Amino acid sequence: MMSQVIAGIYEIDQKIGAGGGGVVYLGRHLRLQKLVVLKADRRNLNTRPEALRREVDMLKNLSHTYIPQVYDFVQENGVVYTVMDYIEGESLDKILARGEKIAQPLIVKYACQLLEALDYLHKRPPHGILHGDIKPANIMLRPNGDICLIDFNIALALGEDGAVKVGFSRGYASPEHYSADFIRYEDSEKTVRDDSEKTVTDTKNVSFSAGSVTRGQAGKLLDVRSDIYSLGATLYHLISGRRPAQNAEQVLPLNKKDCSIEVAEIINKAMEPKPENRYQTAEEMLQAFLHLKQNDLEMIRYKKQVRAVGIFLFLLLMTGVGGMLLGLKQRGDYQEALKLSQYSGEKLKKGDVSGAIRNALDAIPDKKSVFTVPVTAEAQKALSDALGVYDLSDGFGSYDSLELPAAPFDMTLSPDGKKLAVVYGYEVTVYDLDDGSEIVSLPIQKSALSDCVFVDDRRVVYASDHGTTAYDIAEKRELWCGEASTILAVSEDKKVVAAVNCEQNAATIYDIRTGEVSGQCSFENRHLTTAENDIFADPKDYIFRLSADGKWLAVSFSDGGLTVFDWKNPENTFDIYEQSDYIQFEGGFCGTTFAYAAKNNQKSIFGMTDVEQNEDVMEAQSDMSYIVQADSRGIFLANENLLVKLDTSREQTELAYVQDENITGFSVGERFIAVAEENQKVAVFDSGATLVMSDTCEKNSDFVLMGHEYVTAANRDEPVVRIWKAEEHSDAAIFTYDASYKHEEARVSTDGNTAMLFGINGFRIYDRDGKLCNETELENPESIYDEQFKKEPESYLEVTWYDGTVRTYSAADGTLLSEEKGEKPDRTLDETFLTENYEIRSSLHDAPQVYDRVSGKWLASLEKEDYLTYVTQVQEDILTEYISTTGGRYGILLNDRLEEIAYLPNVCDVVEDTFIFDTGSGELRQCRLYSLQELVALGESYIE
What we know:
Strand content: 35-45%
Strand order of the largest sheet: 1-2-3-4-6-5
Number of strands: 65
Radius of gyration: 34 Å
Shape: flat
CATH class of the domain at 4-294: Mainly Alpha
């Protein structure tokens, strides 16, 4: 279809579905460039406008993890479009159509999530909301493994003509669906129309779908139990592979051939033909699933059988039968451990450190016995990775993730960087980043534009549901309350706050301490540049900023104007742009300089203005967007892949440079700068523009905040906040050196008294006090073939040149120990390493091969992508060290079966059972080998 724009806001991209209720399109919000779904309903509406608006608002106020957010209702050319979240994933009916079997544990998980969503809908005031059409096609499986219940019956909510049947999907509809006629309510009364067209009034316990209820020919109302039946029928199909019969009396009950007895009993009860015999609420059915394990008679019998089988196996071990059965059990346990280890790795990538550790611990048996499977290498590696015990680099590591009730509209950090305020629909919640706990949750105006700003570490000002409110989050009490507002700005000296309602043309200035009105700032007939639909999202593409002393207020307007107000002396007010074609603005104050950026569809401009002198300082233009922030520390400007700091004289200092990607957002802290990139990455740079952390998120980050020790990031489409925490390991330092000295390797002498840093140009030797003991430049560095650090019997560096010259240098003081001229090396760089049991042969272009040291039998191949440099026996384990294709160094720790049990970034040496790390920070650091028991203890301690 050709591109079509609806209401000037939403562009339709393509048709993605159709049904009796209308056509479903994939589209995008033109201003926010956000994917949405538009459901077009072409049936005539006869609902009064005020009733329609009441029902529309009810649906727009829905906010739950397992249902899509409804953003808007618009009418165009007689068609009503419902605008809602675009849910990535695949509907369950497509999985069923492929004949794929869904495991019972997953179906139970989906059932619990669906019931949470239904419980939420059914309890919405004033009377509850029915879904009305639960079936596999209306359940989306997201990429993260969670579900989303889509397409609840908007048509019925709108009260259109002809909505006699609600969610009439044969096999999934409850018996009362097939004879249901619909009614609508007026105020507190519900008017019911039966077959004889008589009108009766029912004011008792009537449930409905977004303001509507239905009644069948037998006088039965559709209520929450109708949704319970449809959910039961959906679960029936998922778990048995059979679509339920249309007639509920003809549905064959599930039995133990389909699933466990207890699960069958829950689903069979949900599908009882008579509503009074079903679960009466979604919460009741949810509790049945949540208590499934302890109530499941099959599970109880299974546990008894396991104990009996254990005794039986013990008696039959010598016969081989027990061994066979034991093997089958251990194989299942082994596969479960592999899955849990994989889940651990996936959660670690998402920043859920606690979840990663829990999964890794679950993959490790609590007790060892003849019946338990040995601990898998994958589980041990997952646990060491999640704990990060072998990563001694300074920077920021994954710390945690916050699961939000809904996707965020905005986020802000407290001055100490330890508290995070998140605005979503329609609350603001303040979290303690140290432990992820919720400090307080406060209701806000029902607008995505509603702001919350920190005054200090214990006070916030926010756009509450009853007015501009100052709140003490420590004592959990309201300090003062003013007029209703949505958008707020606080002066840097924390003395005044400016507040404006997005629909008003004047701002109110409050004294932060008392809440008294200090003044008004009239915009005359102008309004801020805000989204057409302020329920949808807050693009933050407007300026509403106070100067540090609160004297000046800069505001951008919907006509493209940009004005700096002196609200105490209006005669000093001036326009930077009286009117323009710019549609997005951002900026702030640095002293008396106001820095701003503006853009339209063709270009982006950056400018600075002296507000005291009313003089333009500079203006620049670019095809790419400028991103600007300003405060008393300076003016920070990003364009394409470069972030710089400007002073008022236009001198600039580089803060961050991102290779081959554009910067989409940034946050400047005292010591570090956090940057969001277009490639879904979040990076952290130190004050010298050196990259100290780069991590990949599931989506691009719309919000990124830099605190003293935490970095937080989130996407406005996902209800998750990623958290990284600053990590310093200086307490593990054993040697210090000049970090500017370029070298390829670092090794510690056998006696542990000196460290040698070397490369093809030469070497340095440092003692334990950080004293430089020796610096030697090597002759003809371009002709060096190889360098090897050896520790037998005394430590020394062996350097080989292509002409056959071999020299050795003492690791104690750098003196030349020997020099000889031999045959020219063959340039293959082939090496052989020996451990207690293995011989490992490494070549430059092929994967290292492992052979049994006694028999010479080939056993395995090792890591093949990078070059193996050293192999060292460490107790029962083996450390293999590699150089990557990009020049980075790392180690892989193998157990005695050559399985990977740990990854060691930046490892450079090993002394007995202690690993040495060189992170390039000017320190060599150490960490001992952790046993499995110690890792488990650390994991359990972390969880506690």
